[in-house]
Amino acid sequence: MNYKAAGAPKKGKNAPRHAENNAHGSLKKPFGQREDKAELLARMKAAAKAKAPI
User: How many other C-beta atoms are found inside a 10 Å radius of the C-beta of residue 29?
Assistant: First the structure.
């Protein structure tokens, strides 16, 4: 008997192994709520200022 050819191969489940914390559509990152560019730049500048040596 040819055990190699016995049965059909199992197909993948096509699902991630775990859910990401910041996935689109989750509570932390809901759909349709994107910060505008001014808020993003202000946040980035504040982070750079806090990280810069004094």
Answer: 13
